[in-house]
Amino acid sequence: MSAAQGTHLPPLLVVAAALISADGRVLVQQRPTGKQHAGLWEFPGGKVETGEYPETALVRELAEELGITVARAALTPLAFSTEAGAGRLLVLLLYRVHIWSGEPRPIEAPTIRWVSPAELVGLPMPPADIPLVSALSRAGCADLLP
Ligand SMILES: Nc1nc2c([nH]c(=O)n2[C@H]2C[C@H](O)[C@@H](COP(=O)(O)OP(=O)(O)OP(=O)(O)O)O2)c(=O)[nH]1
């Protein structure tokens, strides 16, 4: 079945965060070995569980992956993308986040990095991230500040 025809499976909803530092840099993390897209850089986040609100899922994922606490009110929708994956449509929602408590540390990922929107463009990332990176780099560092 072609991507244009869609699939019979419901879309896979994934939420992710562009954590933005005081100087306008964005946090990315490397996907762990053994997972799809291993070694590529991604925005922290993960799958929305059945019955879960996207924002609740992202608050949960940021605590699990980076050890930080984020209020739902601190999540601002930034961009989204869709990608026809292996038999299932991925819908990726990206939120911007300026306020959190705790120091982000790589709990599940091998490495995290803070990069400028321009540096993001050159990083190897999953295909669904490309439109999100374009949205971020169009915004530029100054526009990303709160
Ligand atoms: N978190 C995240 N996932 C992304 C990005 N880009 C992208 O294509 N994905 C895809 C990869 C996976 O197919 C899916 C997220 O899966 P995941 O394995 O990170 O989700 P999870 O944390 O819930 O992991 P798990 O419990 O199922 O192992 O979304 C991104 O920037 N961030």
Automatic annotation (TrEMBL):
GO terms, biological process: DNA repair; DNA replication
Domain Nudix hydrolase: 10-138
Domain of life: Bacteria
Cofactor: Mg(2+)
Cited PROSITE patterns: NUDIX (PS51462), NUDIX_BOX (PS00893)
Repressor recorded as keyword: no
Database matches in InterPro entries: MutT-like, Nudix_hydrolase, NUDIX_hydrolase-like_dom_sf, NUDIX_hydrolase_CS, NUDIX_hydrolase_dom
An annotated Gene Ontology molecular function: 8-oxo-GDP phosphatase activity
Bilayer-spanning residue ranges: none
Catalytic reactions of this protein: 8-oxo-GTP + H2O = 8-oxo-GMP + diphosphate + H(+); 8-oxo-dGTP + H2O = 8-oxo-dGMP + diphosphate + H(+)
Pfam families registered for this protein in UniProt: NUDIX (PF00293)
UniProt EC number: 3.6.1.55
Keywords of the record: DNA damage, DNA repair, DNA replication, Hydrolase, Magnesium, Metal-binding, Mutator protein
Similarity remark: Belongs to the Nudix hydrolase family.
Annotated protein name in UniProt: 8-oxo-dGTP diphosphatase
Organism: Sphingomonas jeddahensis
Gene from which this protein is expressed: nudG
